[in-house]
């Protein structure tokens, strides 16, 4: 009798929505663990010839870059890892300041001089090839990036993940709010790729802006689109469940095929292909395929999660 009464009076803790659990365990936590591991390898390098390690770490960041909430948002960690776009071209001058005699500690420096984009200048831009102190600064930026990555992962592992699993707190009132946060990061990631990763180098027909492509110096521009879409597809499939999984994968496959077609062309990897009419058409086609994914999610997955968007399917990109 006492046991039965105890069971009746015990608080009932509902398990988190399985989609939240899967997003955390299969996508978010492994993604940030990979970022920590990659930045640690970059920081542990004993030489400034770290292009391969940088590429791995940069890809690890792109894979989680859409998760710009919670631990990534705190203390400007995401900006410390990735200050882009840089509309005023502040990164070169910020790096020059860090290479000077009165350089501030990296953690106190301009955000434009920190993270993967600043390191790309040091590793791939001929203007910095012979700068005194370059190797030391690369090492310092790698340590700084690793510190930011570790802070983000630790907070996800030890605090923020629990807020999403056990809702009813000051951050998420219920599972619906947690799912909506994940959906927002998914759609924001798609929007960022169409508007920034592709839209910036596309510019206008009369004035393409190939030099505005993300990580063009290292030739990662198209690869970043591919990495981001793979990660976004993973999250979309988790949120969509069995009912939407096949349709989601089919739409991402169309975009992947377009990426492959561009990658095999001269000027494809750094998106300088936008400078020719024929190349521009191919990049615009990729942009449109991603926009179509975005519309599909807004019309199917969004309402399922309680998100009703003012999104017009006729808007195109």
Report the uncertain regions. 1-13, 311-317
The secondary structure category is mainly alpha
Instruction: Report the strand count.
Output: 0
**CATH architect. name of the largest domain:** Up-down Bundle
SSE map:
Blueprint: H1 2-9, H2 18-44, H3 51-64, H4 77-81, H5 91-99, H6 115-124, H7 134-165, H8 175-202, H9 221-263, H10 277-299, H11 301-304
Helix pairs in contact: 2-3, 2-7, 2-9, 3-6, 3-9, 6-7, 8-9, 8-10, 9-10
Quick take:
This protein is mainly alpha-helical and 317 residues long. It folds into 2 domains: 17-166, M75 peptidase, HXXE motif (A middle domain of Talin 1, Up-down Bundle); 174-317.
Tell me about this structure.
With 317 residues, this protein is mainly alpha-helical. It folds into two domains: 17-166, A middle domain of Talin 1; 174-317. It has eleven helices and no strands. Helix 2 runs antiparallel to helix 7. The protein is globular and about 55 Å long. The protein starts with a helix and ends in a 13-residue tail after the last helix. The model is unreliable at 1-13 and 311-317 (pLDDT under 50).
Features:
single chain; 317 residues; mainly alpha; A middle domain of Talin 1; 11 helices; 0% strand; globular; disordered N terminus; disordered C terminus
């Amino acid at each position: 009798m006492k046991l039965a009464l105890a069971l009746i009076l015990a608080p009932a803790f509902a398990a988190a929505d399985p989609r939240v659990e899967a997003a955390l365990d299969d996508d978010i936590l492994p993604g940030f663990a990979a970022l920590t591991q990659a930045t640690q390898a970059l920081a542990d390098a004993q030489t400034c010839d770290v292009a391969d390690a940088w590429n791995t770490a940069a890809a690890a960041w792109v894979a989680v870059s859409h998760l710009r909430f919670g631990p990534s948002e705190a203390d400007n960690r995401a900006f410390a890892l990735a200050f882009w776009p840089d509309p005023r071209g502040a990164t070169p001058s910020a790096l020059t300041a860090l290479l000077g005699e009165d350089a501030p500690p990296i953690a106190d420096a301009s955000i434009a001089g920190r993270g993967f984009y600043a390191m790309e200048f040091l590793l791939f831009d001929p203007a910095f090839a012979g700068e005194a102190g370059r190797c030391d600064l690369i090492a310092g930026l790698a340590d700084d990036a690793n510190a930011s990555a570790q802070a983000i992962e630790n907070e996800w592992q030890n605090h923020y993940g629990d807020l999403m699993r056990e809702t009813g707190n000051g951050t998420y009132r219920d599972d619906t709010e947690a799912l909506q946060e994940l959906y927002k990061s998914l759609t924001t990631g798609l929007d960022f790729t169409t508007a920034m990763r592709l839209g910036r180098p596309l510019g206008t027909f009369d004035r393409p802006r190939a030099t505005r492509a993300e990580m063009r110096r290292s030739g990662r521009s198209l690869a970043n689109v591919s990495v981001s879409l793979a990660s976004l597809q993973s999250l979309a499939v988790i949120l969509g469940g069995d009912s939407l999984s096949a349709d989601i994968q089919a739409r991402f496959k169309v975009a992947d095929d377009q990426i492959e077609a561009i990658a095999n062309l001269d000027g494809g990897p750094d998106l300088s292909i936008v400078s020719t009419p024929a190349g521009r058409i191919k990049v615009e086609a990729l942009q449109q395929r991603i926009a179509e994914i975005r519309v599909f999610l807004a019309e199917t997955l969004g309402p399922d999660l309680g998100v009703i968007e003012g999104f017009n399917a006729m808007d195109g990109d």
